[in-house]
């Protein structure tokens, strides 16, 4: 057999057309991969754009239901709800978080009633309810662990009662997954799942989100509970612990600066891995696109497929709707 001219192995043959590229693509994005974060606030018939998150809104519940319809129309099957709590309802113990008539609980009920097939997740953390903007009860400038886990566990049960399909604890207190799993099971919610924010870093990329919910810490930072950006081995430990405690899905957060963490976690757990493409990542791309410095659609899709390549099975992203529209038009 004679070979043609060097080089006889040519990688470019598999890149020659859209048809062949799509055929050999190792990873594919689909709207069902996405969890769309939604922000709800009190009131009616109002939506407010979040200044540091262009094109992203906080909705009153009536308008949120219309938005959920739009998400559904582009093929999105899952969302995670965040509630903006009025200042006068915040206290150190996050009391309002347990109110069965609270905004979060009402939002879950309304969405599940109108869209029973939508997979509804709720964020479990005290910061939007805390007068200190922390994810736990504060005493002498410290964040108490076990006392906070008690509140967080009740919060998970309250969301399950409202009809949440999964609860998503984002607080990083020790032992909360086991505590929630036990309480959910004891109270008849053994079908309610837990998506654990397992490797959640103390990140400056959450800034725009805290604008959206008015939930920035009133003093100090979150470094005594959220993880140090320098660590990856610790992420594996946290994810494995959460898996052992009963998490159905584990999460790495933020996304882009932690691609290696997604891969490491993926290789060390047997539950699905999700990633949270956080508010600051959204804001960076939006700002660069507004200036005409980056192509928003292309960078968005490149980023999202990058998460899947890194090992993420699902992606929480503020680009869920925009990306789903692009994917839909491609088919
Ligand atoms: C609540 C919570 C935060 C985010 C999700 N849940 C903020 C924080 O921990 O300070 C951040 C999401 C984002 O930035 O998009 N604990």
TrEMBL record:
Pathway(s) the chain acts in: Porphyrin-containing compound metabolism; protoporphyrin-IX biosynthesis; coproporphyrinogen-III from 5-aminolevulinate: step 1/4
| GO cellular component terms, A-Z | cytosol
Question: Could you say which residues bind Mg(2+) here?
Answer: 238
Name the catalytic site residues: 200 (schiff-base intermediate with substrate), 253 (schiff-base intermediate with substrate)
The record ties this protein, via PROSITE patterns, to:
D_ALA_DEHYDRATASE
Spell out the reaction equation it catalyses.
Answer: 2 5-aminolevulinate = porphobilinogen + 2 H2O + H(+)
Family under the similarity heading: Belongs to the ALAD family.
Q: What is its EC number?
A: 4.2.1.24
Judged by the first EC level, this protein's enzyme class is: lyase
Q: Does the keyword Magnesium apply?
A: yes
State the UniProt keywords alphabetically. Heme biosynthesis, Lyase, Magnesium, Metal-binding, Porphyrin biosynthesis
For whether the record's keyword set contains Metal-binding, the answer is yes
- Domain of life (superkingdom): Bacteria
Protein name, UniProt field: Delta-aminolevulinic acid dehydratase
Q: Name one GO biological process term.
A: protoporphyrinogen IX biosynthetic process
A GO MF label? zinc ion binding
CDD domains, from UniProt? ALAD_PBGS_aspartate_rich (cd04823)
Subunit composition and interactions: Homooctamer.
